[in-house]
Structure formats: structure tokens, C-alpha cells
Design a protein that fits this description.
single chain, 12 helices, Rossmann fold, 19% strand, 38% helix, alpha/beta, seven-stranded parallel β-sheet, globular
Length: 382
């Protein structure tokens, strides 16, 4: 297939592009490179030193003989996006190209507005480009489990059957987003659903859990191909942040009580889920939703797992409960369905001690790059 990976320079997009290329697809990366600029803005960095996108793609071609073409530009610029579609004529459009940090969206009004404009307008442009130039193209959109919030009932995959006053219907699952970022993803979902209904677009929304890990088979092929590893309190996820904190002798900082429970998956499962969606496209006019995660953990459970492995490796890590900068339930019921991708062939990589140990070893190799003041939160929801 001819597959565009938008956001192909990012944490999820880069290994996805390599994996799809290695599987024999013609891959095109679209990226504005803004993620690298956010590091400068936040005075942060990837723990792993990452090459330029051009250097990465050139090295990939040297190693495999496979070409990945780069289009540098922003999805909010429709003239640019239209030309990408004209030149690539994609069978599938994998959409990672959004501002994906909840804390970043909550810094202030400016960051909230940027997040929503960037994400919502970019996705709208993709929908119109498909309608105008590639009506058979399958949109594979990265959503988030955060759209659902933490309801006191089981979370279904996108839709729920409701009986009300003697009648019943299947309706979109109620959304309770927890940040300006998560709100932008809800707006995306509504816009995609409407476009599928009105224009016959085919789309799969992958409501992804929190991704952990670093390496895939492809990124391990050469140091130039290594993936980025975020550890700061704005872009770093809880598990990776705990591992970094353990490596540098910092307390593992659990927000509040630590009962906040979410879905998680390995980066290797992220790339496989994209492949599954591409090989099993939605029907014309269908807005399909998959819950993309493999396990559920509370924040405290993650900290305890990291503490255990760190101790085995000779690192003493103390768990510290700090004031929660977010507005969220710290103890709640959480159970989400995630069978659709499993039924289509996903074989999960689970969070074992060895997985945590592997990330810890990679962190130790680069711990001199850690900017220590960035591991504590400095953005509040209040």
C-alpha cells in the first residue's frame, strides 16, 4: 500500500514509518518538525540523542534499500496538504500529527488555543483532502482513551447500546475528557464521524492508551534510527518518568493517591495495531473505533513495578506522593473493553520486569543528558 504517516518524526510515528516500510509498503512521512521546537521552548530534550529526520531516512535507505519520502509542512496549511495528496495518492493516511500532551495544552490560554486549532483544523483538512483527492483512502486516526474519562461503568469500544423509555439505540460512548488536549481529540472524533456519514469516508479511530517503551526491531538496527524518549513532566509518560527518576536517584513522584488507572501498551504493539488497521480497513462510510491498549495499571502500581526492578539493579527508589497538579479522580472504577484488535490478530507485549529493566538500562546509558529540574511537574490544571 501507499501509506502516509503524518507526524512521522515523533515517538509513535517514527517507528511506525520504519515498520511499515520494512513490511514492504511505500511510506511517506509528513511532519512539520514542531516536536523538536517544543523541546527548545520547554528547555527540555529527548533522553536519547536523535538525528535529524533527513539523517534518519538516509540511514534507513542505506541499511534496507527502502526509500521513505519526506514532506515537511503543517496539516493546518491546506495548500500543502492538498499537494501531498496529489503526489502520494495514499491508500491509507496514518494521522499522528497532533499536539499530544495534556500538560502542554494546560500551560495557559495560548497553549490551549494552539492545541485545539492545530489538532482540530489539521484533522478537518485531512478529511477534506480525502474527500477531494482520495475518496477511497482509509483514515487511521490516533485517538485516545482519555476521551472517555473515568466513568463508573465499563468503557465500550466507541459505542454503547442504550435503553431509554422503552426504546434502544447504539450511540457514541459518552465523552468526559480531562484536558484541553483531550477535548481536541473529542472534537476530532465528532468531525470524523460526521465526515464518514456525510461523504462516505472510511475511518478507524484508534483510542490509544499510554504508550511505554523505547525500542522496536527497526529502531535497534542502528543508533541513527533510535527513537526519542521523553521524560519531562510535560511530554514524559508516568512509567518512563519513574524509570528516569529511579536512574538519577530521584523520588518516584506519584500524583496524589496514585489510584488513577489507565490503559497501557508497548510501542511495539502501537506499530502492529497500525498495520492491523491498514490491512483490515473500515467499510466505506464507517467510523470504526478500536480501544488500543493491552493492560490496565494505576499510577501507584507503575511506581511499585519500577521500584522493584530498580532495587534489583542496585538503584534505591523511594515512592513519594505529591500534590496532584491535575483535576482528576485519584481513586475510581476503571474497566475498558479492548477485544477488537486482539480478534484481528494483535499479540500483546506485556509489561514485564524485563521490559522495565531494558528501558532502565537504556536510560542509564544516557542519564547524563537528564535535565533534573524537568522531572517535576510545573503545569497545573487549576
Amino acid at each position: 500500500m501507499r501509506i502516509v504517516v503524518a507526524g512521522g518524526d515523533g515517538f509513535c510515528g517514527w517507528p511506525t514509518a520504519l515498520y511499515l516500510s520494512r513490511q514492504g509498503h511505500d511510506v511517506f512521512i509528513v511532519d512539520s518538525l514542531i516536536r523538536r521546537k517544543w523541546d527548545d521552548e520547554l528547555r527540555s530534550n529527548s533522553l536519547t540523542p536523535i538525528a535529524t529526520l533527513e539523517e534518519r531516512v538516509a540511514r534507513w535507505k542505506e541499511l534496507t534499500g527502502k526509500t521513505i519520502q519526506i514532506y515537511t509542512g503543517d496539516l493546518t496549511h491546506y495548500d500543502f496538504l492538498r499537494e501531498v495528496f496529489r503526489q502520494t495518492q495514499p491508500d491509507a493516511f496514518v494521522h499522528f500529527a497532533e499536539q499530544r500532551s495534556a500538560p502542554y495544552s494546560m500551560i495557559d490560554r495560548e497553549h490551549a488555543v494552539f492545541t485545539q486549532v492545530n489538532n482540530v483544523v489539521g484533522t478537518l483538512n485531512v478529511l477534506y483532502a480525502i474527500k477531494e483527492l482520495a475518496p477511497e483512502c482509509h483514515l487511521i486516526k490516533l485517538g485516545t482513551m482519555g476521551e472517555y474519562g473515568t466513568p463508573n461503568i465499563d468503557i465500550e469500544e466507541g459505542y454503547i447500546k442504550i435503553k431509554h423509555k422503552g426504546r434502544e439505540d447504539v450511540l457514541p460512548y459518552p465523552k468526559q475528557p480531562g484536558s484541553m488536549y483531550h477535548l481536541s481529540k473529542v472534537h476530532d472524533s465528532h468531525n470524523i464521524m460526521f465526515a464518514c456519514k456525510a461523504w462516505g469516508i472510511r475511518a478507524t479511530d484508534l483510542n490509544q492508551g499510554i504508550v511505554y517503551g523505547l525500542h522496536t526491531d527497526e529502531t535497534l538496527m542502528d543508533p541513527v534510527l533510535v527513537n526519542r524518549l521523553d521524560y519531562d513532566a510535560v511530554f514524559g509518560t508516568a512509567l518512563n518518568r519513574f524509570i528516569i527518576q529511579a536512574a538519577i536517584g530521584h523520588d518516584l513522584t506519584v500524583y496524589g493517591k496514585g489510584g488513577q488507572t489507565r490503559g497501557f501498551l508497548n510501542i511495539m504493539d502501537t506499530i502492529r495495531c497500525i498495520e492491523i488497521a491498514a490491512e483490515n480497513p473500515a467499510d466505506k462510510g464507517e467510523f470504526r473505533v478500536f480501544n488500543q491498549f493491552t493492560e490496565e495499571f494505576s499510577v501507584l502500581e507503575l511506581a511499585e513495578k519500577v521500584q522493584k526492578v530498580a532495587a534489583q539493579e542496585g538503584y534505591e527508589a523511594r515512592i513519594a506522593h505529591i500534590d496532584n497538579p491535575r483535576v482528576e479522580k485519584e481513586e475510581h472504577y476503571y474497566h475498558a473493553e479492548n477485544t477488537k484488535l486482539i480478534d484481528l490478530g494483535l499479540e500483546p507485549h506485556l509489561l514485564t520486569d524485563d521490559v522495565i529493566r531494558g528501558i532502565l538500562h537504556a536510560v542509564v546509558d544516557h542519564k547524563d543528558r537528564v535535565i533534573k529540574e524537568n522531572v517535576m511537574p510545573n503545569v497545573t490544571w487549576k
